[in-house]
Amino acid sequence: MTLIRRFEERAGEMYAKAKVGGFLHLAIGEEATIVGATRALRDQDYLISTYRSHGHALARGSNPNAVMAELFGRVDGLCNGRGGSMHMFDLEKRFMGGYGIVGGNLPLAAGFALSSDYLGRDELTLCQFGDGASNQGTFGETMNLAALWSLPVVFMVTNNQFGMGTSLERHSAVTDLMRKGEGFGVPGMRCDGMDIVDTYAVTTEALRIAREERRPVLVEAVTYRFRGHSMADPEEYRTKEQVDEWRKRDPIAVFGDQLVAEGILDEDERERIDRAAIERVDAAVAFADASPHPSPNALYDDIYVLGDQVRGWYSVDERTPTPHRGEDERTMDSADLPQHEHAERAGPKPADDAQQGSD
Question: What is the distance between the terminal CA atoms of the chain, rounded to a whole angstrom?
Fold first, then answer.
């Protein structure tokens, strides 16, 4: 949790310095929900989250260097700089990504679970999504199919009290979110998302049901984010007093106090953990800053179609007088390529016809 907190704080600082482009959604305050749930998974289980996904990647075991480099849009990022903040992905850790579309990860999670069930594997899927996503059509559709097909999947709604800037009671007719799946045959459970121990215990039981009984479960994790919905959020929909009240339940501070009180840690060890997290994040920032930007000619890498059934070009590049196949850029003569501002072209440019004629 400490690593996630320090990572997110520095990510916010880097965003303010224009090192990170696009949107940036921080999970400061939600660390217990992330870590408590993720630690209940087995290595072979799948995890998919929302656009607030940096902490999930870290909790699943992704290298902080690669996560920060992805935020910077560099080639050494988890997705080679192509995903950015909202689309972290680490197949080796079975972290199936952050997902930018609200509620769009729900049917994908059901698909992973269907695959596990079809192949007869002892694995399952944990899908985390926000309270706002519980109002999307994909929520009901996915709950129905998951229950109908008895899929091994746990859906965890991260109830941080706001769907972007709209409070829960203003965007959902049913505010008892753990019950929103019952009409589709998906039983609900609730955990204190500010308490890592309770989150772990409840998630463990939900995962047991999904794994052993092969049926879906919906878990509501009641939590709170201390920062805005994104870095662009002016936070005019809530008061400073409300945030301060929730900060009294800071999951890192509260859990740290519990560990000290029970003699598991002393204050020196607690400070050492914090210093180590800060140093790790500093190293990640330095790594990301030193990583190169992707080459403009790599724009069409990883764009594909399956088989020969689709005729035509994979992509079209219209940055030259004559449009050409985007996938041909790597084999085209440099004189025929669009002149990218940051592209490094090896070798001399061919002389034009006028110069050749004058020679």
Answer: 70
